[in-house]
Amino acid sequence: MYHAKESDLDVIMNIFKKNREWFPHVRKFHINTRIGRKQVILEDGVVITYHYYTRNQPLSKLDKDGNELGPSVIAEKGDCILHQIVTNEKGKASIVLQKFFNYVKSKRVYLSVRSNNEIAIKFYLKNGMKLVGHTHWSDGKMPGDIFLYNTNKEITLEVD
Prior knowledge:
By secondary structure, this protein is of the alpha+beta class. Helix content is about 25%, strand content about 30%. It has four helices and eight strands, in the order ααβββββαβαββ. The strands form two sheets. A six-stranded mixed β-sheet has the order 1-2-5-6-8-7, sandwiched between helices. The protein has a two-stranded antiparallel sheet with strand order 3-4. The longest helix is centred in the middle third of the chain and has 11 residues, at about 95-105. The protein starts with 8 loop residues before the first helix and ends in a 10-residue tail after the last strand. About 30% of the residues are buried.
């Protein structure tokens, strides 16, 4: 997998701009920071941003009344969170995503997506991800779904 370099920043931002409907929150500074941390992949016109959790992290949230939206989802230290996958070329995203699943150094890859993004949800299901929970953003005004891909890798975490 090709980790993006600072010189790729304009290409990456143009891909996000073409998909502004789903990624209005993505900022150039944020992507540049992730590039510096080697958390951005750019391959065949597909961008993936990700990182590994350094501690256990709850992914599901409670609703405004304090009730669970579904099963509690907790990512464990070492699990991967896929922040964004975006492309401006049809037909390449599945190939790059499958390569990413083989590349990551964790048993599990999580992501969250807006519940109304039907195209993305179909894409994740088609690529072997399972719906495992729910979340929300904007004080509960924007519902989201949590997906998981199990890489079936045996991973041994080093103890500090």
